[in-house]
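The data are quoted verbatim for completeness:
=====
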Amino acid sequence: MGACPACFTVMIDLNTWNAAELTAAINTPSMRYDGIWNIPENSHDVSDALWNQAYNTLGRYVRGNLVAEEYGVGNTVCNAVSAQAGFRVTGSFQYYETGFSCTPGNCPVISNSDVTKYASQCAAPVIALTRAYSNTYNGGGWANAVNSIIGNPNLQGIGWEFQPSLPFNDPVFENFANWINGVVSNGKKAYLLWGFYRPTGEAIERQVSYFIRNLRATGAKLDNPNVVMVITRYQDASSGGRGYTPIVGGSGSIQAASAAMQACRQGPC
């Protein structure tokens, strides 16, 4: 991704990548990002030396943007990724993995005390997870939970994991633009975790353009480096054998989604 001080930041999540995919991306000059996000336990054939090369090649500014994702909460992954990189991670993604359902006052956003605890254990500020910021979805519980921790000085930002293949008018996306603007106005980073599954319909690069156009149309102020797009992929267990989205390749690949993200960052898309 080219330098653009007044644009959103773009990071790549290496979760689920194997050694061949990492090597192919390292050898593809167009696949360079503002930082790296990783949970290396989901990649089973990658050496520490290859992780180090990937962090320092794919992440153009990786020493300022290296995020370790824990399996829930803890300090195992932040320590492992720091050792692989040879320097301390700059952020630690911590969350309670309990799904979407919750009730007002009981939505599983990490608590203030755990933000402080794991920031200390990882020697890095914490990124919390939300799955909504709606006044009506789950009774507004997600929004209330986010607001309760936003002032914590050990909190770097809030991550929102979502599926860009869903229609933008899906109820879960209510107040998405307000969430971005509110997080950034509080001096935090808004991390948008683009959860790409191997598509059966619209190619993922077109999902990028569609979603960013809708975010801007609904008032999201994206021209700020504290708005962070994290390109990631997941395997759909019910995909009928479709497997993972390819990393390097043409339409439908992470490389193609990255190119679309770059185009949207520097102009209309």
Remarks:
- The chain has a mean pLDDT of 90.
- Helices lie at 19-26, 48-58, 76-85, 112-122, 141-149, 176-185, 204-217, 254-265.
- DSSP finds eight helices and eight strands in the chain.
- The first strand starts at residue 9 and ends at 13.
